[in-house]
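Record Cation:proton antiporter, 410 aa.
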Amino acid sequence: MTQLFSLESYNYYLLAAGIITLLAALIPNIFQKKYLTPAIIYLLIGIGIAFAGGKYGNFDIMQHTNAIRHISEFVLIIALTNAGLKIKKPFSWQTWKYSFRLLLITMPLTIIGAAYLGWWLLSLAPAAAVLFGALISPTDPVLASELQTSRPSKKDLSKIRLGLTSEAGLNDGLAFPFTYFAIYLAKNGLDYSQWIGEWFYIEVLYKIAAGTIIGFLAGWFLYKLIFKITDESHHSNISRGILSLAITLLPYGLTELLGGYGFIAVFIAACTFSNQEDQIQHMDTLHDFTEEIERIFVAFLFIFVGIYVYVSINELLDLMIIATALTVLLFIRPLSGWIALYKTDLSTFEKFALSFYGIRGVGSLFYMMYAFDKVTFPNAYELIHVTTVIIVLSVFMHGILAASMQKKLV
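=>
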């Protein structure tokens, strides 16, 4: 007798992927301007799946570091392209006057404060403590999109939106040197005199410079190739989806092959490509495509995080872990931001918003998995637990406040 119903697991995965993709299309529109952001909904869905399924008791995240790393990596580079396309005047000092302070002052202070906190409260080994500081230091370009500046063609005068977009665009790449500092520390020990020179010249100077230069050249070349060399009558026939992926993957892949920081290259390439007012209508369609791809992968990733939260709830509810997470989110990042912005012309509310809204998310997952793939870290599970709690608390805390914050942004 012919079997009508296919029980292959592959088909179940396809069905699940289709459902999650549908959710990624519907949820951002349903909950637009509500107090529940899409990431919150995806987390709750993941928790509900784990509660209903009950088959995840032996799940070990350390067995899946490579998969989590690559998924989070792809989400980040798409989000960085999206952020770069949004910035109206990427090479104007007015665009960067506040975010440079956040990058040069807030980020290092956050790393130092979080590293000390991890060592003091969680008894992390020095290498693990430094990695903890590095991985929670960037403002996430994925989850911070709720308060980022508007699509390319729409005028947006908000200093807060512009500051968060430009900060999130660069500090994911700038967290890499500090992550490598933790990797060197784990590999070579506390005698930094043996490796500090190599770290500084390679991981800081060369890789940042390579990402910046390749990103600029790639963005300039792609713009000239698409809009200057090809006939203007053919511009409307160019697939915006294919072009968006080219702007993302070409600079990223080339930079990584040459040993630079691909995150920096992707953001700089998108900024360079979009720095043309005469093609603003095309930038909108590129932005819209990258945003759609970003939404799909965010849904997958945070449903997975929700599942992990449910199956690891006993470890995550540790008092010291919760205290560490709350201190990072409510004290270390806001205070570091306030110090950086203290003598600026921003209002008290603007300083508070830029200081407080340093949401943690996909970038933290990526850097943690990246470091774990490079070297064995002490306290790996403690790092996973505290990072998960920080992400979850940040998603809820910053997400719930996003709707009320948007009403005050000017």
